[in-house]
């Protein structure tokens, strides 16, 4: 046997492509030549494979070895081809079974002593290969649990190059290596943020439930200590469990981010709250060689919370526009585009002014009207255009907090159930339209589509529009929220009262 083949996976963003790794052993001076790897990765891989093989007692043949990774044009970053390269060489030499090697996709970077290092992105790599029809995968022991999350595949976890060779041939004496551990499995239990802990502020609570039901982006405005952060952290708890496909996507992004993936598939929506000093790369993703997902991608299928939103750099906020429009994050590099999922629910929180006191009960705001305007203007335009729900959060008084309120408070479990029922309603109603959530429905369709409301129902909105109290965009957003309020109530369409409440939720905000 002089030529042997196996497969590995190249990742670009979340996109995995199959790579064929072919080894040829010919006559000539002993060299190891690798074709098809870019730049520096090439000599690094050569040195690692050679050292690892020697150090674990399955030294490479003293011949002219040529390894070809194809397709050549495919960008191949990272060091995850080591294992495939080593297996192809040993199979070409006849030391291990070429047939066995050909039937397995190999993923993993070698350390110099011959052990396999866990890698980022095992989950999306295997998911991609499984979609392409591959079934058997050899992965570093440290990635075992994550690999096993992909349904319908056979995972062979190995500790070292030697273990890998033994699996394919049994020609070596077993040596016991200690596995290099991956990231600790991350805890799937979300901290429980109970909705019923929120005292008062019934408008804000209703707005939160509506945001969860309709998938509406949300803006919370209020003075310090009003409970904006508290409310936002309760949103993920109100969202339904993820379906398997979305859950795999969420874990795949975590895997690529090197953030640790739970042992069992996490089905709760993620919550990410980057600090306002975050860079665009931290929010959107970036990095020079291996492009890593940022907070927005990690929040996909869940909630991205920007606390103190006006404090974020304008360029960072701008970077959110593209994912908000398309649900996809694209990161452009010289010769490639990395794509990550970006369908998160955005929650912004802000104080009404730099000192935070404007509009509070005994307001002691020290900001000039100009300063106030400029503060929130940082958020204006395309970003706010995407936000259906804007709500003013009031500071509850110490007495209210101490006594609680007399109204029974909605619990997280009750609210989630209501949200699930509302979502079923809207999914049924929107069947065949391609939209699933009210937040996805364009204003045009609401105003003149088959579900247009009678004029008498929207009279308050029409008047507000005429008076200039709301804009046309605002009109559409209020209609969307009115539909969600109706779905939450189990109504077939919004009543004038739903429209009024949607308008009220919005008007309770000065901006
Ligand atoms: N409505 C409320 N019910 C119960 N507790 C509340 C309420 N509002 C505020 N609190 C309490 O006050 C604390 C501060 O609230 P939180 O941090 O959410 O305010 P904030 O609006 O985000 O303020 P900041 O603008 O300073 O960030 C909360 O941890 C909570 O304990
Ligand atoms: Mg806060
Ligand atoms: Zn102020």
From TrEMBL:
Keywords associated with the record: ATP-binding, Nucleotide-binding
Gene3D superfamilies hit by this protein: 3.30.230.10, P-loop containing nucleotide triphosphate hydrolases
SMART domains recorded: AAA
InterPro entries: AAA+_ATPase (IPR003593), CHLI-like (IPR045006), MCM_dom (IPR001208), Mg_chelat-rel (IPR004482), Mg_chelat-rel_C (IPR025158), Mg_chelatse_chII-like_cat_dom (IPR000523), P-loop_NTPase (IPR027417), Ribosomal_Su5_D2-typ_SF (IPR020568)
Chain segments annotated as transmembrane: none
Annotated AAA+ ATPase domain residues: 214-397
Single annotated GO MF: DNA binding
Entry-linked NCBIfam families: YifB family Mg chelatase-like AAA ATPase
Family from the record: Belongs to the Mg-chelatase subunits D/I family. ComM subfamily.
Protein name: ATP-binding protein
Species, as recorded: Subtercola vilae
Taxonomy of the source species: Bacteria, Bacillati, Actinomycetota, Actinomycetes, Micrococcales
């Amino acid at each position: 046997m002089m030529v042997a083949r196996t497969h590995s996976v190249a990742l670009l963003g979340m996109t995995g492509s199959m790579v064929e790794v072919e080894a040829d052993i010919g006559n000539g001076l002993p060299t190891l030549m690798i074709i098809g790897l870019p730049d520096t990765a090439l000599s690094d891989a050569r040195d690692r494979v050679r050292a690892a093989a020697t150090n674990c007692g399955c030294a490479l043949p003293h011949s002219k070895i040529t390894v070809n990774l194809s397709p050549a044009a495919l960008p191949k970053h990272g060091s995850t081809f080591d294992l495939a390269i080593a297996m192809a060489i040993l199979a070409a030499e006849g030391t291990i079974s070429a047939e066995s090697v050909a039937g397995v996709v190999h993923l993993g970077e070698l350390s110099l002593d011959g052990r396999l290092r866990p890698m980022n992105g095992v989950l999306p790599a295997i998911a991609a290969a499984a979609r392409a029809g591959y079934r058997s995968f050899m992965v570093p022991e440290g990635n075992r649990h994550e690999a096993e999350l992909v349904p319908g595949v056979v995972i062979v976890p190995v500790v070292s190059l030697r273990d890998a060779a033994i699996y394919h041939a049994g020609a070596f004496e077993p040596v016991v290596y200690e596995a290099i551990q991956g990231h600790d499995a991350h805890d799937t239990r979300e901290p429980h943020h109970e909705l019923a802990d929120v005292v008062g502020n019934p408008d804000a609570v209703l707005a939160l439930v509506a945001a969860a039901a309709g998938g509406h982006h949300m803006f919370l405005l209020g003075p310090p200590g009003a409970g904006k952060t508290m409310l936002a952290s309760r949103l993920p708890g109100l969202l339904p469990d993820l379906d398997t496909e979305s859950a795999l996507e969420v874990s795949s992004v975590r895997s690529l981010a090197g953030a640790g993936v739970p042992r069992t598939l996490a089905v709760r929506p993620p919550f990410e709250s980057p600090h306002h000093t975050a860079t665009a790369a931290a929010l959107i993703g970036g990095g020079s060689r291996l492009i890593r997902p940022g907070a927005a991608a990690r929040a996909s299928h869940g909630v991205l919370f920007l606390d103190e939103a006006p404090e974020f750099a304008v360029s960072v906020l701008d970077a959110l526009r593209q994912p908000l429009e398309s649900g996809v994050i694209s990161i452009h590099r010289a010769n490639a585009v990395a794509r990550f999922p970006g369908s998160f629910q955005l929650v912004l929180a802000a104080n009404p002014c730099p000192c935070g006191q404007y509009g509070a009960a005994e307001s002691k705001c020290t900001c000039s009207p100009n300063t106030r305007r400029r503060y929130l203007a940082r958020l204006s335009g395309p970003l706010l255009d995407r936000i259906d729900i804007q709500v003013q959060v009031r500071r509850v008084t110490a007495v209210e907090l101490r006594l609680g309120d007399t109204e029974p408070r909605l619990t997280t479990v009750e609210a989630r159930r209501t949200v699930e029922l509302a979502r079923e309603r809207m999914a049924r109603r929107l069947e065949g339209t391609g939209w699933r959530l009210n937040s996805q429905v364009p204003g045009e369709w609401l105003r003149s589509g088959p579900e247009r409301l009678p004029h008498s129902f929207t009279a308050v909105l029409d008047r507000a529009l005429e008076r200039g109290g709301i804009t046309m965009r605002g009109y559409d957003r209020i209609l969307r929220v009115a539909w969600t309020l109706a779905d939450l109530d189990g109504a077939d369409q919004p009543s004038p009262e739903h429209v009024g409440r949607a308008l009220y939720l919005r008007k309770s905000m000065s901006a």
